[in-house]
Amino acid sequence: xxxxxxxxxxxxxxxxxxxxxxxxxxxxxxxxxxxxxxxxxxxxxxxxxxxxxxxxxxxxxxxxxxxxxxxxxxxxxxxxxxxxxxxxxxxxxxxxxxxxxxxxxxxxxxxxxxxxxxxxxxxxxxxxxxxxxxxxxxxxxxxxxxxxxxxxxxxxxxxxxxxxxxxxxxxxxxxxxxxxxxxxxxxxxxxxxxxxxxxxxxxxxxxxxxxxxxxxxxxxxxxxxxxxxxxxxxxxxxxxxxxxxxxxxxxxxxxxxxxxxxxxxxxxxxxxxxxxxxxxxxxxxxxxxxxxxxxxxxxxxxxxxxxxxxxxxxxxxxxxxxxxxxxxxxxxxxxxxxxxxxxxxxxxxxxxxxxxxxxxxxxxxxxxxxxxxxxxxxxxxxxxxxxxxxxxxxxxxxxxxxxxxxxxxxxxxxxxxxxxxxxxxxxxxxxxxxxxxxxxxxxxxxxxxxxxxxxxxxxxxxxxxxxxxxxxxxxxxxxxxxxxxxxxxxxxxxxxxxxxxxxxxxxxxxxxxxxxxxxxxxxxxxxxxxxxxxxxxxxxxxxxxxxxxxxxxxxxxxxxxxxxxxxxxxxxxxxxxxxxxxxxxxxxxxxxxxxxxxxxxxxxxxxxxxxxxxxxxxxxxxxxxxxxxxxxxxxxxxxxxxxxxxxxxxx
Length: 651
Ligand code: FAD
Prior knowledge:
Layout lengths: L5 H15 L4 E7 L3 H12 L4 E5 L13 E3 L3 H10 L4 H8 E7 L9 E6 L1 H13 L4 E5 L2 E7 L9 E8 L6 E8 L8 E4 L2 E4 L11 H7 L4 E8 L2 E3 L9 E3 L25 E5 L2 H9 L20 H7 L6 E6 L6 E5 L7 H8 L10 E3 L2 E8 L13 E2 L1 E3 L9 H19 L13 H12 L23 H13 L4 H23 L2 E2 H7 L12 E2 L1 H4 L7 H7 L1 H4 L6 H26 L20 H10 L4 H5 L6 H14 L1
Parallel strand pairs: 1-2, 1-9, 2-6, 8-20, 9-21
Antiparallel strand pairs: 3-5, 4-5, 7-8, 8-9, 10-11, 10-19, 12-19, 13-17, 13-18, 14-15, 15-16, 16-17, 22-23
Bound molecules: flavin-adenine dinucleotide.
Flavin-adenine dinucleotide binds next to helix 2, strand 2, strand 12 and helix 10.
């Protein structure tokens, strides 16, 4: 893990800035140094492209605009996948994490959600240090005012080509073969607090005016979304004894496949606290409704991260959870998750003081809302390139998503593809069957966005195969062998892991014994004693009460070399039958491509599990074959499997 002191950082920035001045042509330019932009720039440079990252303020590179946390259910899977592709956020999370926990632990490991509370400053410093030491990457402070595009080719009307950017300081244009826009909440951004509306992308930052080029020059469809953030509270003014303490996991599990430990020692982690809203909170929201112009707008906000105003209006009379989360190891502030609000600051103070631990709380920075433009993502191809503009890629909140992890995931993939395009290599896609990143991109492209999109494990049909524990085997090998964005160090480690796991699984397979013998060895397992069958160690490991450690102590000579992977082997054994079934289903769909779909099917009443949206699409289009149905926007592989089973069953 690298870390450079703030002074050295400034010196590096100055020298980078100076050396940049000589260069006016890049393979890839990335606009924006948020979560999408930093991953995109680093990935493009790793893939071999001379890359320039231009962002409004260098010191805000890697800033966590809202919550000081990373990962969670679905989002943690994305962090693991970005890490598997050699991205930054997993290692940054391990460096800056101050409270690690695995969410959803009571459920199967496929849907566990690795999550960490972060120290904001450490996170930013790590990302900045990484970027500034990445070969082939220049970082420059500036605001991109204009996207340069060539006139459409008369042979291909409507098809533009991006040629570079122009900064607002009036300097010369900078040319590039590919440009990635990752402008987050800044595109024509407006900030809201009480009855005040002002231009801005985030508090203290100016908005970006690039919407004009996107709409008027490129003819792209642009929509509007909103989000908000809670006030930050002075820690010393809070009576934490009135809240429930929530300790971290005693053994923090790192995000990165390269890290055996987190930077923060287990005993140095900080707790979070849980408290609840009272009827007084609801009263303040209702009384101040007329003073709160953000919530009176029709623009859609994040459904799964709603403001306190939306929560009390949608679910009146309830006590809503509020998490009090540390903002850093030495920070004086607490982040009240669940209290995003946009009323005037004096009313925000009145509201928080209605919550018992916050009776005498002081606000450091008031909450506010932001509304911004996004580009309808159905206009992109699977490489995240704008279909009608050669060389222009979009990633992050600009595509209608919400969250750092969703942004990082798109960023890494846009970075790989922008670099490949610039280096005259074919662009690549990730499928829904191999990654959550593939699910995310496919959902955006096929369904578009009507509200801010966030990841959930339920969005992935093949989630038993797309587990956090195996993201390295799914993506690191492909990232090195096909995409070229993974270092040889990480690749060698992934190959070692793959080979060792394969050897361990073969050893488990070969360890066959009669069920009677196994039962004698492990009386606690529930095996029928009436009839003896032969069971392999791998099959035995599928039993709930059997751990790899137990098998290794029974057969140390063949299993003890694999103790390092005991948990992965247990998970692999449990999920293997489901994954095999899923692989068969995928093959079956491919084989049944030409199966005719009866034209008189009433999709609205079909007695199979289909979403209302899928029923409407199938009813409208009436695909003639299963293959035609798979290619419809909005039709997922799960829908196809259900359709296939139904038609075959009724034949
Ligand atoms: P950002 O992190 O926003 O980064 C954009 C970057 O682009 C910035 O560095 C900016 O300076 C730069 N930039 C923009 N225009 C230009 C230009 N023309 N030239 C040069 N640089 C430019 N997420 C949640 O999941 N839940 C929430 O509740 C939530 N609430 C939020 C509340 C607020 C007020 C804000 C601002 C964000 C919130 N987010 C929330 C969103 C979260 O911050 C984003 O999802 C995430 O940061 C998106 O990453 P990004 O890289 O797309 O954009």
